[in-house]
Amino acid sequence: MLQELSIKNFAIIDQLDVAFKNGMTVLTGETGAGKSIIIDAVGLLAGGRGSASFVRTGTDKAIIQGSFVFPAGGTTYRVLDDLGIDHDDGSVILQREIHANGRNTCRVNGMLVNTNTLKRIGETAVDIHGQNEHQELMQPEKHLGMLDEFAGAQVAKLREKYTKKYAAYTQLKATLESRRANEKEWAQHLDMLKFQVNEIDTAQLKAGEERELVAERDRLDNFQKINDALQQTQAILTGEETSAGANDQIGSAMQAMQAIADFDPAFKQIAASLETAYYALSDAVGDVSSQLDLLEWDEGRLDEIERRLDVINQLKRKYGDSEEQVLSYYDKIAAELKQMQATDETADDLEERVAGQESELLQLAEKLSKARQEAAKHLEKAIHGELADLYMDKTVFAVHFTRAKAQSLMSTGLDHVEFYLRTNPGEAMRPLAKIASGGELSRIMLALKTIFSESQGITSIIFDEVDTGVSGRVAQAIAEKISGIAQASQVLCITHLPQVAAMADHHYFIAKQVVADRTETSLTRLDESSRVDELARMSAGTQVTKLALEHAHELLKLADEVKSAHG
């Protein structure tokens, strides 16, 4: 569940901190006060798309933080374990910063993550159900996904297996089509890859080799200059051209100063400096001697280096600006060559393999379709039960299947699925998207959400004005349905209906005001008396009457009776 939410510099929100509890929480207030902005903020914590337009005018960034806890062994903790994110204390803090320049920063328990990872975690924690989901009901192409979601593990396993086989099938089919259309181009490309792979492979190129060769060539090119410098240095240090070398002279000076070092600290410091110089020069004498011993002129080696550098330069001209780029290109074409050689068979061979895979795929698609049809029966039964509670007991809901041709296997199988509806007895079943009203869509979507919430394991469900287009007893039924969902999951609900607000366990009022010429949103938790006033305002509008207050009291009394009966 979502325990705490902190929002800063987000849209018209300057600073907002709120603690949430179990059960059903409603957010009410005037239109435009910022209710949906709070839901947008939670949506961003769940990995929703961020935009610089969310950042409050005049600020550098918007900051949103949410603290969550989940049942032990829940899906969220398993995802965190997979990602290596610590959650030993049981709490999970999701944080998102959206900068004015559009940059996003996401953290989970202090660990930086990308938005895809945040979404992977967030979709196990929060389920936001808004009016846009009604639009999904109006899009038949989304209905198959809804059915599969309801069907659960059995269909999910079959669909995953089918998807993998379908990907392999389409790849092989594309290869066959390419071979048929481009036999000549295929052969030419294969020959070119073989030549390039062989050329780079034969060169035995190594990263950093050119740099080492250039350094060695420079030493050989400057052999005489290096030899002269080493000889001269050795002569100066060892005294080959004078009676005493520089090192011996430094040694004599060191001994002279050491003899008087005890008379003055300054003398001792000079003696120490000379001693350091003496031993450093002694080491230098040894190093110069070693370099002279190693120094060797090899004209054949110089020619060998020049030839090798020429090979490297030729490879760079063809395949990249550096050895690393050449080697990266080699890895790429070697993999492509391996794939082409693996499928280096005749078009007839490929056609036989495609036919074999298509046959296997068709069998698996039939199993998937059968499992879906079985799940559809259970969904229809469950939907009818929920709709009866929402005063749509005469409505008939059906999952309508049409089959693709065997030669037209789709990435999702053989099935086209669309939800059909009959709202009144005696009428024909018709596509839901063509006949359902806004209120009916609200109730159907709520029915689906009620069914799905029992199996998804999501601990926080948000309803954003899902009661649009309903009133009266239907509004009361929706309120009771949402309250029922809150028995198993934390529910946050934005509503304009007093019936829904009365069913809440916790009630927050959202308002906006102008402070120092800036619009700000505030959030206040209502006590019992304030709830009565707010419910009366929701019922009566701007002028709260005595009758509206009495109605508000009645709504709260009814809500307590309903919750007691459910409890």
From TrEMBL:
Protein origin, superkingdom: Bacteria
Residue stretches in coiled coil: 333-381
InterPro entries: DNA_recomb/repair_RecN, P-loop_NTPase, RecF/RecN/SMC_N
Domain RecF/RecN/SMC N-terminal: residue ranges: 1-512
Keywords in alphabetical order: ATP-binding, Coiled coil, DNA damage, DNA repair, Nucleotide-binding
Family stated for the protein in its record: Belongs to the RecN family.
Summary of the function given for this chain in its UniProt record: May be involved in recombinational repair of damaged DNA.
Official protein name in the record: DNA repair protein RecN
